[in-house]
Amino acid sequence: MRTSTAALLAALLPTSALLVTACGDDGGSSEAASDTRDVTLVLDWTPNTNHGGIYAADAAGFYDEVGIDLEIIQPGQTGALQAVATGNAEFGISVQESLVPAQTQGVPVVSVAAIVQHNTSSLLALAESGIDGPGDLAGHRYGGFGGQLETALISKLVECAGADPDDVDYVEVGNTDYRVGLETGAFDFVWIFDGWDKIRLEQAGVDVSTVSFIDHVDCIPDWYTPMIVTSTDRIDDDQALVADFMAATARGYQLAIDDPTAAADALLDAAPELDADLVRASAEFLAGQYALDAPRWGHQDADTWTTFVDFLVDSGLLDQQPDDVASLYTNEFLPE
């Protein structure tokens, strides 16, 4: 594996059009000239346990076995979708809320696997805040990225609980230290990932309460975040590469499910700066989430895609329905 470093990207439903023009794709860099093909994967963030199956696959030699020399890079300012769409990377990690508007605007990207089957996001507050359910969010201040999706989801949760969404205050804090913000009163609740932030705070002895999105799918949609994406050009030009990459990646995630310690060790070898105790606990948590309720790792369900797209349209976050929701994703390259 070759590894390089770039800047972080925080992206929750881009508010401006993702105006990229897919440049000509050479159809894979070296499949005809060499048995080994150079492949670049752009992450969605810094290395973390959502990527555990990829690092596990690389450490176990699964990519080598299919003739892939994988380079894993962190996203620059343009993010994974643009890198994939322009042919600067073969694969990327993204989220449904970014891919849907991008493809609707003509960006040739498609999801080829759901990394985690169900949304593991929650709204987290200090236990002493009195926030125990969606209705309790009213009268409190949310600290986030200022994204439209954040506001839409919180408003819907509060509305479903019979409270007034206008009674929630919002403050844009970006990628800050949530614990400090909560404990200093800068905000009362934040959006976190159960498999990372919640574990980190609990390991630090912070007494927290959460409103888990997955507990309220009667009000808001479940959706895929994160997922693996590639370009439609890549699929058209080199299906063998996509199939080989996905076969090795699926083996890696199955390894992460069966042996989360191995996945944690692989991630820590690649990113030794991470908190080892947090990584190991997170890997254990995600081992039970990667393929939960699914026939196989990576599977994407039509209802999940349709329900989320409908929510975006109904909330005014998407101008129009995609012509064909099924064009946003494919299970074709997942091994049986």
Give a description of the structure:
With about 325 residues, the chain is of the alpha/beta class. The protein folds into two domains: about 35-120 and about 225-325, D-Maltodextrin-Binding Protein, domain 2; about 120-215, 3-Layer(aba) Sandwich (D-Maltodextrin-Binding Protein, domain 2), CATH 3.40.190.10. About 35% of the residues lie in helices and about 15% in strands. It has twelve helices and eleven strands. The strands form two sheets. The protein has a six-stranded mixed β-sheet. Strand 7, helix 5 and strand 8 (about 170) form a beta-alpha-beta unit. The relative contact order is 0.19. Keywords: Signal. InterPro entries: NMT1/THI5, SsuA/THI5. This is ABC transporter substrate-binding protein. Pfam families: NMT1.
